[in-house]
Amino acid sequence: MQKVRLGYVGAGFVAQAVHLPNFTTLPDCEVVALAEIRPQLAQRVAERFGIPRVYRTHHELLLDPDIDAVAVSAHFVHQAQVAEDALRAGKPVFMEKPMALTVARAERLLQAEREGGGRLMVAYMKRYDAGIELAKNLIDGYRQSGELGRLFYLRARCFTGNWTGGNSGTVIQTDEPYPPVTEEAPDWLPERYRQSYVGYLQVFCHNVNLARWLLGAGADWQVISVDLDEDGFTGVAVLRLGGVRVTLETGALSAHQWDEDTQAYFQRGWVKATSPSLLLRNACAEVEEYRAGEGAEYRRLFPQDGWSWSFQREAQHFIQCVRTGEPFRSSGEDAAEDVRLIEAIYQRWLRKSPESATAV
Ligand SMILES: NC(=O)c1ccc[n+]([C@@H]2O[C@H](COP(=O)([O-])OP(=O)(O)OC[C@H]3O[C@@H](n4cnc5c(N)ncnc54)[C@H](O)[C@@H]3O)[C@@H](O)[C@H]2O)c1
Question: Fewer CB within 10 A of the end CB, N or C, for the chain?
């Protein structure tokens, strides 16, 4: 395969601010088609990014024989359907997170992958952040050597804040009507928690995905206890991921920047990664480490590929895996665990809430 010929679906905010600037400039990728239900938006975005073919829907795009792979970013329900159809058409698929709003829908995507012959990568860009990679190498190294003692705790904290990092000013918008969205939620979830559940899932799936990866936990997770405010967003979940105790501290802070860090504690030191504002270009997580004992030291480390953008490295990873057949670092099968875990956190919380105990 010379260049990967990519078909992109959805010309909205994330496509314009993040993925099209990356996919259209990677040397081994050519964005050959754009599908967008809103025709004026489709035309204007295709012109801006030099994309030669424009389709109205992803169904038309999937019939194009010159497309090697598909990428999609859209409303959660729309993008899950697009990904499912593309997997059934046998394409490698890059989709924004979360892969689904329910476990049932996530499993449908995995089934489509198995039956259609496509393969799915879910775009969890934090796994491709150069600072996070460095933090993972440090954690893995200390776990292997035992130098800092046992890894006994991981703290994943995300209080949100400004997520665009100033990267939203040039997005094209039209006044065309937005395509209708069918509501989707787990069938056990009381109606009044639907909105907060979607908010919790769509923000904090990043943090459980990252924590599972840093600990090499895969599908080995348990929800121990959950204490959330009535907003269904602010609070603490205590988990065990790969046998390690993890707290997921969540909330919304009116911060001028993104307020998130992930810290792994050993008996004699720690490794901490502070994540940048989500869409901030060319800035990776800041990494610090502390080593106790004789000659105790505190260090701030900068990765070799430090001035880089996680979203660009993520796009490069997808294209490389399509070309070589290598497995995705954030596969659909792995990402389904995040949907399972978030559903389990919410189930646990609602079971404990006396007010909702009868509703669940
Ligand atoms: N990784 C991150 O940190 C991050 C940050 C923000 C948003 N996101 C994710 O991005 C997604 C939202 O993307 P957005 O804000 O660009 O959405 P958007 O609503 O701005 O754009 C989606 C576009 O897709 C089009 N569309 C929908 N279904 C279609 C179909 N079948 N065929 C063709 N076009 C179709 C719509 O008309 C719309 O223009 C969400 O999944 C969200 O979780 C990720």
Answer: N
Which protein residues are within 6 Å of ligand 1, measured from CB?
9-15, 35-38, 41, 57-58, 73-76, 78-79, 82, 96-97, 123, 125, 179, 202, 278
Expressed in angstroms and rounded, the spacing between residue 293 Cα and the centre of ligand 1 is: 49
Residue of the CA atom closest to atom 22 of ligand 1: 74
Full set of structural domains in the chain with CATH = 4-123+313-323 (3.40.50.720), 127-309+339-352 (3.30.360)
Task: Kindly tell me the number of DSSP H helices and DSSP E strands found in the chain.
Answer: 10, 14
Strand residues in 267-323 grouped as ranges (E): 269-274, 286-291, 297-301
pLDDT tens sequence across 53-101 = 999 999 999 999 999 999 999 999 999 999 999 999 999 999 999 999 9
Ligand 1 atom with the shortest distance to the CA of 38: 37
d(CA 218, CA 208): 11
Select from 75, 82, 105 the residue to mutate for testing ligand 1; criterion: most ligand atoms less than 8 Å from CB: 75
Mark 105-125 as b/e (b = at least 16 C-beta within 10 Å).
bbebbbebbeebebbbbbbbb
Query: Is 358 a residue whose pLDDT tops 70?
Result: no
Rounded distance between C-alpha atoms, residue 280 and residue 353, angstroms: 38
